[in-house]
Each structure stands twice: as C-alpha cells, then as structure tokens.
Design goal:
The protein is mainly beta. The protein has a single domain (14-100), classed as predicted glycosyltransferase like domains (Thrombin, subunit H). Helices cover 4% and strands 40% of the residues. The chain is built from one helix and six strands; from the N terminus they run ββββββα. It has one helix spanning 96-100, and strands at 14-25, 31-42, 45-49, 59-64, 71-78, 88-92.
Length: 120
C-alpha cells in the first residue's frame, strides 16, 4: 500500500436503510433510547445516522425496530458538525451487526448454522 492508496477494508460494505432503536448512556450518565437508522453495514460494524451527539468510545445497544436481536457496538468515529457527515457515526463490533438485520457475509455461518458449518 502506498501513501496514495485507499485504506484496505476488512470486509465489503452493504448499503441498507434499516430503522433501529439505539440505547445507552451519554457521558453525563444520562440514559438515552432513540430511533436511528443504519445506512451501511459490514462484518465488523456499520454507519449509523442519529440526532444524538454520541462520543467516540461510547458503547451503544442497536436493535432493529422490527427485530428481536440486538448488538452492543462501539462508536469509533463521529461526523463533524456542519459537514456532509454530520449526524453520522461509525460503529464497530465482532460480527453481530449484520446478523441482527439478517445479512450473512461469505464465510459466515447462515441462519441456523454453527461456526465451521459450510453453506451448500
């Protein structure tokens, strides 16, 4: 990789529109429980749009509004105010985000499969 090369991605991304409910605690320990929207996901995280001002390092519970499963994700970047990325944030996890919305990437076990069990 050279200085002008784009960063190498660990996983492909899927653009989606998925309404979710996010919850957790703000830095002042005030709880929050808000509607938001997942707009991109990968094996390792996703991009979220929300009205809340979350901080890098916070942990957020994400649950699809029409689903039963949830995942805890870590905020790893926040879009700057007054920029095209305002209201967006990057979330990171260990593979749980895609599965809670029903997306399975190649090499992952599908619904009802265990790790190491191949899809046929």
């Amino acid at each position: 990789m050279t200085a002008n090369s784009p960063p190498v991605r660990r996983s492909s991304r899927v653009n989606i529109t998925c309404p979710v409910r996010i919850s957790g605690q703000l830095r002042e320990h005030a709880p929050f429980d808000e509607d938001a929207q997942l707009v991109t996901i990968s094996k390792y995280g996703g991009k979220l749009k929300t009205r809340l001002s979350l901080q890098v390092g916070m942990h957020v519970k994400v649950k699809p509004r029409h689903g039963k499963k949830a995942a805890i994700l870590k905020v790893v970047w926040v879009g700057q105010e007054n920029s095209p990325r305002a209201g967006e944030m990057g979330l990171e996890c260990d593979g749980g985000i895609a599965r809670i919305v029903g997306i399975y990437f190649p090499g992952e076990p599908g619904p009802g499969k265990r790790a190491g069990q191949a899809d046929r």
